[in-house]
Amino acid sequence: MLPMPALCWLCSLPLRFSHHGICSHCLRSLPLLPSLCPRCGLPAASARLPCGRCLLSPPAWQALVCVSAYQAPVSHWVHQLKFSRVTALRVMLARLLLLSWLQAYRTRLLTRPDLLLCVPLHHQRGWQRGYNQSALLAQPLAHWLTCEFSEGLRRQRKGALQHQLSAQQRRTNLRGAFRLEFAVRGRHIALIDDVITTGSTVEEISRLLLAQGAASVQVWCLCRTL
Q1: Whole-angstrom distance, CA of residue 45 vs CA of residue 59
Q2: Dist CA 119 CA 219 (whole Å)
Q3: Which residues contact 21 (CB under 8 A, 6 or more apart)?
């Protein structure tokens, strides 16, 4: 029997390279990002220089890379991956994240990471879902970049769901929520998440990593709420 050709996740036409997940035409038609601050990833006048917010109060991490604002089609794919168990999306979404990072790597001269970490789920939430969607993204990225991937970052306190809280409540909800189970001193780390809204979660984790001696922390996400 002949194998069924892989189809583009957007237009449903057959793909020449099945592992890409999206055809070149649809890739070029994805919504463009506005000019974003290279540090916090929020709209700014320059995509190369830190914005005024970061000059006054910079986040703990050194750079942020995202694929899209929180809008279709990427937000729809994230929702399918996260809540509908459509894990077949993982490689295509990881490739979009890789392409976004490669562009930033060339234009912003980012440090190449030697360690990938994913934002962890509490073990009860992970058991209910059956997987950590951020880990599904990080695994192929680590393979393509030939760097280490570890799940040695743990969420030790469940807390309330972040999307149900205000910005101040999010910060309070995350204090002491994470535990690092291995040494990161001198490592250049990329922290992978699916969606970043206020940045409270990755801020708390970045502070933990830097306090443990990490050389640098970049944040990579599929969607950034702008």
Answers
A1: 18
A2: 10
A3: 6, 8, 9, 15, 89, 91, 92, 93, 95
**Cα 19 from Cα 177, distance rounded (Å):** 36
* CB < 8 Å & 24+ apart, contacts of 73-76: 73/9, 73/10, 73/30, 74/30, 74/222, 74/223, 75/195, 75/223
HSE (side-chain half, CA atoms, 13 Å) at 48 = 4
Confidence of residue 164 (pLDDT cuts 50, 70, 90): low
The string of DSSP letters for 161-207 reads: -GGGS-HHHHHHHHTT-EEE-S--TT-EEEEEEEEESS-HHHHHHHH
Amino acid at 178: F
- Outline where DSSP puts E strands in the chain: 63-69, 115-118, 148-150, 153-155, 178-180, 188-196, 216-224
- CA-CA distance, 52 to 204, in Å (whole number)? 22
Token readout for 63 is 């750079």
Distance CA 143, CA 141 (A): 5
CB 167 within 8 A of CB 110: no
Question: Distance between CA 132 and CA 82 in Å, rounded?
Answer: 8
Name the residue among 64, 75, 65 with its Cα closest to residue 98. Answer: 65
Cα(28)–Cα(91) distance, integer angstroms: 18
- Over residues 5-23, the pLDDT tens digits come to 689 999 999 998 888 899 9
pLDDT in tens, 98-111: 999 999 999 998 99
